[in-house]
Amino acid sequence: MRFVLALLAVVLTLVGYADAEEVRAGRVAVPVVKIEKGEACVAPTAEMRRDHMKMLLHQRDRTLRQGVRESRFSLKSCVDCHASRETGSVLGKDGFCSSCHAYASVSLDCFECHTPLRQTRAASAPR
Amino acid sequence: MSPDRRQFLGWGAAAAAGTALAPVIRLIELAQARSPQEAASALQRWGLLIDITKCADCDECVTACHEENGVASLGRPATDAQWIRKVGLRDKRTGYAQTLPLMCQHCEHPPCVDVCPTGASFKRDDGIVLVDKHTCIGCRYCVMACPYGARSFVHEAVSGQKADVPRGKGTVESCTLCVHRVDRGETPACVEACSRDGGKAMAFGDLNDATSEIHRRLKREPSGQIRADLALNTGVRYQGL
C-alpha cells in the first residue's frame, strides 16, 4: 500500500511539473534569438547580454558630440547584423531587439528615432 | 670650456626649434581628411558661402536636403519640419526681387545653445550646431531664441528615417550641415544639388583653411551675414545681399 501511494505521488508530481512547463511556455513569449549574420558579436555573449546598453550609450555621445564614427559599437552595425532576414528589421514579433525586450519588460526607445531597418542591400536579400 | 658652452647653446637652439615646429607639423596633419576614429577638431570651422546673385528661382537645395535627411512633408505646413527654406526679398520701391536659401547659420555664439536647459543644443568643435535628441526635452526654447527661425519641432511620430539621420517626435531639429556627409569627407546635400541642378550659388568649406576656396573668396570678395548686428559670427555667409 505504501509503495503504491509513493508511486502515485511521484507520478502526480511529474504530471504537475510537465503541466506547469507547458503553461509557462504557452503564456510567456520566450525571446527569439536568431542571429542572421556573422560568427561572433563585438564581445562575448554574456557581456553583450548584460552591457550592450552601456556600449551604445558610450558610443552615441562620442559619435554625436565629437564626431567619432567608429562602427564597432554603433547602433547601425547592431541592426545590420541582427535584423531579421524576412522583415529586414530588429523590431516586430520575432525581432531580435523587441522580442527580448518584451520578455524582460524593458522599454526600447532607440527606434523611436533610429531606423530599425537594415541598410546594407546585399545582406537584406534572401539567400 | 668655450666649445662645451657653444655645444650646449646649440642643443638649446635645436630644442627650441623643435618645440616651435611641432605644432606646425600637427596643423598640417589636421588639414587632411579626418578618419572615423578621430574627433572633430576646433582647428576647422565648416561654413557655407551663398552667392544670391546666382541663386536661381528653384528649390533644388530644399528638395535635396529633405530627401537626404528623410524630412517628409505631412501636408500640414503649420507643423511640418523645415530644415531649409527659400526666402524671397522684394524692394518695395523698385520691385527688385531676390531669393535666397535660409537654414541654420551655424553661429559661433549660438543663442539656441545659450537657452537650452538640458545642454541638448550644442556646438561641435568644428562649428556645426546640433541637437542631441537623446537629451532634448522638446521645450522649444531654442526655436524661440533662434533669430533665423531655423529650428523645427517634430509634432508627430516619424517613420522611415534615414540610418544616418535619426528623427523622432517631441524633439527639436534643424540643419545639421549634413554632418554625416561632412564626416565622410563629402559636401552637404544642398550644395551638391545646387552645383548640379541649381545656379551653382553655394560653396562649402573650412573657413579656417587658408587654401580652401571659401576662405579665399571671403578674403577677396564682399560678403555679409544675415543679422550681422547680433554679432553671432555665422558660419553661413551671403554675397549680393
Task: Write structural notes for this entry.
- The complex is a heterodimer of chains A (127) and B (241).
- With 127 residues, chain A is mainly alpha-helical.
- Chain A is 57% helix and 0% strand.
- Chain A contains six helices and no strands.
- Chain B contains seven helices and nine strands.
- Chain B has helices at 2-31, 60-68, 111-115, 141-145, 179-183, 189-196, 213-220, and strands at residues 46-51, 84-90, 97-103, 121-123, 129-131, 152-153, 172-173, 202-206, 236-239.
- Chain B has a three-stranded mixed β-sheet with strand order 8-1-9.
- In chain B, 34% of the residues are buried.
- The interface between A and B is medium-sized, with 19 and 28 residues.
- CATH architecture heading of the largest domain in chain B: 2-Layer Sandwich
Amount of helix of chain B: 25-40%
Q: Which structural class do you get from the secondary structure elements of chain B? A: alpha+beta
Nearest-integer average pLDDT of chain A: 79
Low-confidence stretches of chain A: 122-127
Number of strands of chain A: 0
The fraction of residues assigned to DSSP E strands of chain B is: 15-25%
N- to C-terminal distance of chain B: 71 Å
Quaternary status: heterodimer
Overall, the morphology of chain B is globular
Q: Assign a percent range to the helix content of chain A.
A: 55-70%
Largest sheet of chain B: 3 strands, mixed
Rg result of chain B:
22 Å
Order of helices and strands of chain B: HEHEEHEEHEEHHEHE
Report the total helices of chain B: 7
How many structural domains can be distinguished in the coordinates of chain B?
Answer: 2
Order of strands in the sheet with most strands of chain B:
8-1-9
Helix vs. strand class of chain A: mainly alpha
